[in-house]
Amino acid sequence: MSRLPILIAAFLLLAVATAESDSPTAYSLLQSYNFPVGILPKGVVAYDLDTSTGKFHAYFNGSCSFSLVGSYQLNYKSTISGYISENKLTKLSGIKVKVLFLWLNIVEVVRNGEEMAFSVGITSANFDIEEFLESPQCGCGFECEELSSDKFDRSFPFVSSS
């Protein structure tokens, strides 16, 4: 019996795996639009992007929640979506932030130089870009044992308009 079909199948699988590993990650895609990787937590398993409109979806294996040092909680649904363009994420869905006792949808993120402005519709808050150079981890944010870091001051200014 010929081994040719098995060799062809193995070659095709290798070619597909190589092509997939060469495709950009969701995090490198963010960087190509001038965003830091840290606006997405670790764990994106897939994404799709319509380059003609900027419409995107990012997928996690489940919802992703975490708290950030001394300030607020974030929740990412298993699928988040919106529109991406240079320095701007708009019409976002699937991302919420807890402010005091309310969960509010983050609907827009804009990069202005070295600052990021996060909008919940009625108000927005600005943060230094340096706070987003690393991706937080689902469940523990930056408080994970392997990611422990004191450099992130996460005071939360959403309680007043900018």
TrEMBL record:
Keywords: Signal. Residues 1-21 form the signal peptide. PANTHER family: DUF538 DOMAIN-CONTAINING PROTEIN (PTHR31676:SF125), T31J12.3 PROTEIN-RELATED (PTHR31676). InterPro entries: At5g01610-like (IPR036758), DUF538 (IPR007493). Pfam families: DUF538. It comes from Brassica carinata. This is DUF538 domain-containing protein. The keyword Membrane does not apply.
